[in-house]
Structure to design on (460 residues):
């Protein structure tokens, strides 16, 4: 990745990130944001060097004063000589370069402090990948050696919840007089909060908000060893309450050492699932869907001629190579022959087909050879005794096609459908055939002169 260096040194970007070079960190996060092809290799290179930073997730509704709070929190952590990286996410704001201006304004509070790195994420409307990009940006800062990585998100929607709940600690910030108590319940954010912050406590209604939060927390069943989220009052503009917030974070960190690894495991799982889902969707879009197919499918869903479940199942079937998963396929064609050695010589030597398996079916008094042809096969059948059904068939009609076998997903449903149409069946109920498959025969008189065998494979 040496071509990415802008200053001419032939050093890899990942090495420069590991050395904590701010320009390299900024470049690395940009690559991740843009989902650039080099991003995956970069994350791979940095990954072994991550895991040391403590991730703090902070969310809350717009106007809760989170940016100011994060600045104050950063300053407080710096007093302890700890380095701090900040990733700020605002999916509602159309950042395009504006993020950089925002960062500059925010960075002024920590200007000239090499121990602080602040970065806003330009989300470019890709909400799905936001959680992944945010976590990878946090990993860049982790690998760069920052002791603390603060992830700040605006809003309390599902994306913010997903981002924040996988941090090592989740802090939910609320302000009085914004109908927050309702909002908290609605977003189900109670479950993700390890610490509540009521900011702007100089405002009217602060006491009421703290009281309603504590009332809600009191309803939660908590075991003696279980962490009970504290409610911390802050006034970010003055910095009041920020040391108490750091104390609450430290207390949680000390309390949750045991849970720490399982929390990280949840985060890893979330990221892995997200990655597989997004890679799979990218594969579907590039390899499975035909040009314009998605739009046509959406039109059909809109006019209710197709439901989304069937649409998804169809695409999934094709992506998994089931070719649209036809309900009936040709399993094999059974051919009654007089002399199996001569028949094999014809199919193998003259036609170049392979004979893969042979079996003697004692009950039927036949010897069978299977000759695969594409997805199906030919089953060459030779009688082993004079009273075998195959011997009688050859005697009566001469050698030739004896039966065809159709593979069905649900043999009982197939038989029911045939019965309903008055089709004459040899077997009303399926019986166990070779390799445990369920089989049933349809009488040739109902199948235009051909003996039809239905077969349902046992599911592996
Ligand atoms: Co057969």
């Amino acid at each position: 990745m040496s071509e990415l260096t802008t200053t001419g040194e032939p050093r890899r970007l990942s090495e420069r990130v590991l050395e904590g070079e701010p320009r390299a960190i900024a470049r690395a996060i940009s690559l991740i944001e843009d989902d650039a092809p080099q991003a995956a290799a970069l994350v791979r290179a940095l990954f072994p060097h991550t895991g040391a930073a403590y991730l703090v997730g902070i969310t809350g509704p717009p106007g809760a004063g989170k940016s100011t709070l994060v600045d104050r929190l950063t300053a407080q952590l710096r007093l302890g000589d700890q380095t701090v990286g900040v990733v700020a996410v605002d999916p509602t704001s159309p950042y395009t370069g504006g993020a950089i201006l925002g960062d500059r304004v925010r960075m002024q509070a920590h200007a000239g402090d090499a121990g602080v790195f602040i970065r806003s994420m330009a989300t470019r409307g890709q909400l799905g990948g936001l959680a992944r990009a945010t976590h990878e940006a946090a990993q860049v800062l982790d690998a760069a050696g920052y002791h603390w990585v603060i992830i700040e998100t605006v809003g309390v929607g599902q994306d913010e919840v997903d981002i924040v709940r996988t941090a090592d600690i989740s802090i939910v910030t609320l302000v009085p007089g914004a109908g927050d108590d309702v909002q908290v319940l609605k977003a189900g954010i109670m479950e993700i909060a390890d610490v509540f912050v009521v900011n702007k406590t100089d405002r009217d209604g602060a006491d009421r908000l703290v009281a309603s939060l504590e009332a809600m927390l009191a309803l939660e069943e908590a075991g003696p060893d279980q962490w009970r989220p504290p409610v911390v009052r802050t006034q970010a503009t003055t910095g009041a309450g920020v040391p108490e917030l750091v104390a609450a974070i430290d207390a949680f960190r000390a309390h949750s050492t045991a849970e720490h690894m399982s929390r990280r495991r949840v985060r890893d799982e979330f990221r892995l699932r997200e990655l597989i889902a997004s890679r799979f969707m990218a594969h579907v879009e590039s390899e499975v869907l035909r040009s314009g197919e998605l739009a046509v499918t959406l039109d059909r869903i809109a006019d209710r001629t197709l439901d989304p479940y069937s649409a998804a199942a169809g695409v999934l079937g094709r992506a998994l190579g089931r070719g649209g998963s036809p309900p009936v396929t040709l399993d094999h064609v059974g051919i009654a022959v007089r002399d199996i050695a001569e028949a094999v010589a014809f199919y193998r030597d003259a036609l170049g087909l392979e004979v893969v398996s042979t079996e003697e079916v004692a009950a039927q008094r036949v010897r069978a050879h299977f000759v695969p042809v594409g997805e199906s096969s030919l089953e060459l059948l030779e009688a082993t005794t004079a009273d075998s059904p195959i011997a009688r068939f050859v005697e009566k009609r001469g050698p030739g096609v004896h039966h065809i076998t159709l593979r069905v997903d649900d043999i009982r449903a197939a038989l029911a459908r045939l019965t309903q149409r008055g089709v004459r069946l040899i077997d009303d109920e399926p019986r166990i055939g070779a390799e445990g498959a369920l089989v049933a025969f349809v009488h040739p008189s109902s199948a235009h002169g051909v003996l039809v065998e239905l077969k349902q494979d046992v599911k592996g």
Observations:
- The chain has three domains: 50-264, 274-319, 328-456.
- Residues 1-10, 94-101 have pLDDT under 50 and may be disordered.
- The CA atoms of residues 44 and 397 lie 68 Å apart.
